[in-house]
Amino acid sequence: MQNNKRIVLAYSGGLDTSIILKWLQENYNAEIIAYTADIGQKINKKTIIKNAKSLGVKKVIIENLKDLFVKEYVYP
C-alpha cells in the first residue's frame, strides 16, 4: 500500500529542525517536504539542501520571499 501522507516542515537546515525532521519521519511514516522561506536572512541554500537530502528528504523548497516580505512587513 502506498503512503500518501505528507508533512511540510519549515526547515532551517540547523540542528533543531533536522532533529524534528527525523522524528516526523520515524513517528508519522510520512513524506517530509523541507520548506525554507528566504526573506533576506543569511542562508546557505546548498547546505540546507545537502542537510535535508542527507536525512532522506526528496523534496526541498527554498522560496524567495524577499520582495514580498519588504512590501508587506517592512514598508507596508
Instruction: Return the average pLDDT rounded to an integer.
Output: 93
| Low-pLDDT segments | none
* Helix share bin: 40-55%
Q: Sheet with the most strands? A: 3 strands, parallel
CATH class: Alpha Beta
* CATH architecture title: 3-Layer(aba) Sandwich
Cα distance, first to last residue? Answer: 49 Å
User: How many β-strand runs?
Assistant: 3
Overall structural class, as computed from helix and strand content, comes to alpha/beta
Determine Rg (CA atoms, Å).
Answer: 14 Å
What's the number of domains?
A: 1
* Spatial strand sequence of the major β-sheet: 1-2-3
Name of the CATH homologous superfamily: HUPs
Helix and strand run: EHEHEH
The number of helical runs is 3
Strand content: 25-35%
> What is the name of the CATH topology?
Rossmann fold
Summarize the structure.
The protein contains 3 helices and 3 strands; from the N terminus they run E-H-E-H-E-H. Strands 1-2-3 form a 3-stranded parallel beta sheet, with helices on one face. The model has no long low-confidence stretch (mean pLDDT 93).
Describe this structure as you would to a colleague.
- This protein is of the alpha/beta class.
- It has one domain (6-74): HUPs (Rossmann fold, 3-Layer(aba) Sandwich), CATH 3.40.50.620.
- Helix content is 43%, strand content 25%.
- The chain is built from three helices and three strands; from the N terminus they run βαβαβα.
- It has a three-stranded parallel sheet with strand order 1-2-3, with helices on one face.
- Helix 1 (15-28) links the parallel strand 1 (6-10) and strand 2 (31-38).
- The longest helix is centred in the first third of the chain and has 14 residues, at 15-28.
- It is elongated, with a radius of gyration of 14 Å.
- The model has no long low-confidence stretch (mean pLDDT 93).
